[in-house]
Amino acid sequence: MLGRLVLALVIAIILAFLFLPLLSVFVTMGPVELFTNLNTPIAYQALFLSLKTSFTSLFLIVAFGTPLAYWMSRTSFWGKRILEVGVQMPIVAPPAVAGVGLLLVFGNLGLLGGVFSAFGVDVTFTAIAVVMAQTFISGPFFVVTTRQAFESVDKELPAVSRTLGVTPWGTFWRIMVPLALPGMLAGAALSLARALGEFGATIVFAGNLPGKTQTFPLAIYTALQSDLDVAVAMSALLLLTAFILLFLVSLVNRRAASSALDQGKGA
User: C-alpha distances in angstroms, 9 versus 2, 216, 231?
Assistant: First the structure.
């Protein structure tokens, strides 16, 4: 009995530690006050920029991450484990370090930034830099999840498809993508949520210029220095968006698991 009480107390403390900071953002003001604090030009600018850059990043991640994930799921070679760890490094690396790395490569005096500057193209402190930072940080979430989705597909199906005369390209679109789609959607939602919340790499590589590179998280950071209510209102909106995206991921994963279970019973 005592053991159960101790376990319940430990669980309650952990849950309180996790949820109270998040819930406090929503209980400090009512809906009307929340909307009033969000109804500012800076909030609108930051929100529009975040949505524009995040969906641009998501498009690039899906377009280039899908073939990379498929290739990694279907090939074996020496050093593959090292490559997999390298792809996942942006997930665990401090975002500020990622920003420094991007700056060293694409900054005006960087390895490639100097070449761009010679042609009159400046990447840093522009919306392009925001997209690059978001893509770099959030891309691995999609690649890792999509690779796992492709690996879960029966390896005999592509072989059977080819014996029926279907081209590799047709096999990829007609068999692999539909079967891996739930995992791909989950990865896309995770990447979008991470891109919307990106802060460290963005502020280092793109700066914090209102209307130009100031995304929603950067606007929250700026508002904290002058108007706490506005910062809290914007934080609530960002948290709500993240919750919706994660809830959708949970639904997709549950439906995918249910579908796999039904197929197993049918077999």
Answer: 11, 37, 33
User: Which residue shows structure tokens 């439906």?
Assistant: 255
22 within domain boundaries: no
Q: Which residue has the tokens 């790499």?
A: 201
Using the predicted structure, report yes or no on whether residue 8 has a pLDDT greater than 90. Answer: no
Q: Which residues contact 119 (CB under 8 A, 6 or more apart)?
A: none
Segment holding 240, helix H or strand E: helix 228-266
pLDDT at position 198, please? 95
Distance CA 106, CA 122 (A): 9
Assess if residue 64 is contained within a domain. Answer: yes
What rounded mean pLDDT belongs to the chain?
A: 87
Give the closest residue to 44 by CA, choosing from 196, 232, 204, 214.
214
Q: Give the DSSP letter string of 30-48.
A: -HHHHHHHH-SHHHHHHHH
Whole-number Å distance between alpha carbons of 216 and 43: 7
Q: Rounded distance, CA 112 to CA 121, Å? A: 11
State how many domains the chain has.
Answer: 1
User: What is the C-alpha to C-alpha distance for residues 100 and 204, in angstroms, rounded to an integer?
Assistant: 7
* Reported pTM: 0.86
Q: Domain span at residue 161?
A: 41-256
Region of 214 (left: φ > 0; alpha: ψ -120 to 50; beta: rest) is beta
Residue 169 carries which side chain, given as an amino acid letter?
A: W
pLDDT in tens, 45-88: 999 999 999 999 999 999 999 999 999 988 888 888 899 999 99
Quote the tokens at residue 59. Answer: 């498009």
3-state secondary structure of 27: helix
